[in-house]
Amino acid sequence: MKLLKQGAEAKLFISEYLGKKCMVKVREHKSYREKSLDERILKGRMRSEAALLSRAKKAGIRTPVIQKIDTGNFSITCEFIEGKTLREELQEGSRNAKARCKSLGALVAKLHSNGIIHGDLTTSNIIVHRGRLVCLDFGLGDFSAKPEDKAVDLLCLKKMFLSTHFAFLECWKDVEQGYCRNYAGGKRVIGQMAAVESRARYY
Ligand SMILES: Nc1ncnc2c1ncn2[C@@H]1O[C@H](COP(=O)(O)OP(=O)(O)O)[C@@H](O)[C@H]1O
Ligand SMILES: [Mg+2]
Predict the structure, then answer these.
(1) Which residues line ligand 1 (CB under 6 A)?
(2) Minimal CB count within 10 Å: which of 57, 92, 121, 191?
(3) For 128-146, b where at least 16 C-beta lie within 10 A, e where not — what string?
């Protein structure tokens, strides 16, 4: 297996599964956590990541297909998605930025209208594969119907977006537009987002 990335929570390896390129995500122990607690946390994250990935796929959101779950070494094997991350694409100065941002909003709309909170919405967790967006990394996600949880999820993306993609600041509006057009509860979540933001300012 070839190490692709050492993340904060996991190591990512490129390998092969049934003759096809795949991605193996191995969660790592944290030495500062007591061992049995650590194992419970890692198993819980892995299970919820797998559950969220397959729920999202059922809802018609593009996600990598899970091929294997190994609770022994805390790893998930899934198909390798070719393409650049949306972050890379925007940073290279994409001519499609506006359309991409609308699709990004539509993707989050689909997640939220199906009660899925991603938990780590960033443009690094989206791969542009043959012109379409594929959503990755549900390790910090959860299921929730609450507008507040959806607002916090979207706010995470907004903060990341505005700090990383300052060349495309005006495109945040396109994200919100894509979101509201594809989710009947979208306007309420955007309103809630403003409430969360103004609360955060006083902490
Ligand atoms: N199935 C996949 N196919 C292709 N690249 C992937 C896949 N999963 C992850 N990656 C790449 O590895 C990076 C980190 O993976 P991710 O699941 O987001 O882990 P982390 O928890 O470390 O953020 C992603 O930003 C992406 O570039
Ligand atoms: Mg990630």
Answers:
(1) 5, 7, 9-10, 12, 23, 25, 64, 78, 80-81, 85, 124-125, 127, 136-137, 139
(2) 92
(3) beeeebbbbbbbbbeeeee
- Catalytic choice (120, 137, 149, 174): 120
CA 68 to chain centre: 20
Angstrom distance (rounded) from CA 70 to CA 61: 24
Residue 70 annotated in active site: no
Structure tokens of 88? 């890379």
pTM of the predicted structure, to 2 decimals: 0.93
Beta strand 126-129 with 132-135: parallel, antiparallel or unpaired? antiparallel
Residue 142's DSSP bridge partners are 117
User: CA 26, CA 22: separation in Å to the nearest integer?
Assistant: 13
Domain residue extents for the chain: 2-79, 84-201
Is the confidence at residue 203, as pLDDT, over 80? no
How many A from CA of 166 to the centre of ligand 1? Answer: 23
Best of 9, 127, 133 for a ligand 1 pocket test (most atoms within 8 Å of beta carbon): 127
For residue range 55-86, what is the model confidence (pLDDT) as tens digits?
999 999 999 999 999 989 999 999 999 999 99
Task: Report the mean per-residue pLDDT for the chain.
Answer: 94
